[in-house]
């Protein structure tokens, strides 16, 4: 195997995986696909600093928080009504974060779907976010986020909307699935290339997340 990646683990688990790979001369983990957006920012506490230290690129999933960052309050959609994951990962108080995204989008003449990923991509360790699409126009909108440059004041305004009383890292996550736990026993060696080769740039990867 030439490249190896991990999706959604605790920082201590990823640390063990990195240690085992280095100890055994296995292929190094070039990317981490973690849950990271303006609402769910626990990765900033441990996972993102770990990835920065180890030269691991981050490919975050759900930069739009399952659409919550793009919808105005009380907007009824089929996904919001049928998506059980949204009630597990997010809560009503998160709308305060979405309102700041809409505020900046309105001032800049942008859409919230451009502003939210732009803030995620502003983190230096993020290589490329994974965005989910349900409508034909959404891929182009996601790609347009690459060209959005938020200034320091805008970035700070979005950052301070994250209330510090939020629970600890991944506390709303039931834990990684068995397949991810088994990754600690997988083996693979550290490539000479950096994590940026994985995505070949900053453009979001489009998927069904």
From TrEMBL:
Ranges of residues in domain NADP-dependent oxidoreductase: 12-160
SUPFAM superfamilies: NAD(P)-linked oxidoreductase
InterPro entries: AKR_Detox_Biosynth, NAD(P)_OxRdtase_dom_sf, NADP_OxRdtase_dom
Domain of life of the native organism: Bacteria
A Pfam cross-reference name: Aldo_ket_red
UniProt KW Oxidoreductase keyword: yes
Keyword vocabulary terms for this entry: Oxidoreductase
PANTHER family: NAD(P)-LINKED OXIDOREDUCTASE SUPERFAMILY PROTEIN, NADH-SPECIFIC METHYLGLYOXAL REDUCTASE-RELATED
Protein name, UniProt field: Aldo/keto reductase
């Amino acid at each position: 195997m030439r490249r190896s990646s991990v999706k959604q683990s605790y920082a201590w688990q990823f640390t063990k995986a990195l240690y085992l790979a280095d100890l055994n001369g296995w292929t190094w983990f070039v990317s981490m696909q973690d849950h990271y957006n303006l609402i769910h920012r626990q990765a900033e506490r441990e996972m993102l600093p770990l990835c920065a230290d180890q030269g691991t690129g981050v490919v975050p999933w759900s930069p739009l928080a399952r659409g919550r960052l793009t919808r105005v309050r009380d907007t009824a959609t089929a996904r919001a009504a049928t998506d059980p994951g949204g009630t597990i990962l997010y809560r009503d108080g998160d709308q305060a974060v979405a309102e700041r995204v809409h505020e900046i989008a309105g001032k800049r003449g942008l859409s919230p779907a451009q502003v939210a990923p732009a803030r995620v991509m502003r983190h230096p360790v993020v290589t490329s976010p994974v965005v989910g699409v349900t409508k034909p126009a959404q891929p182009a909108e996601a790609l347009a986020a690459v060209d959005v440059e938020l200034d320091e004041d805008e970035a700070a305004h979005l950052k301070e909307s994250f209330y510090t009383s939020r629970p600890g890292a991944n506390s709303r996550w039931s834990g990684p699935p068995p397949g991810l736990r088994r990754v600690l026993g997988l083996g693979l060696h550290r490539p000479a290339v950096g994590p940026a080769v994985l995505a070949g740039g900053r453009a979001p990867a489009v998927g069904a997340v």
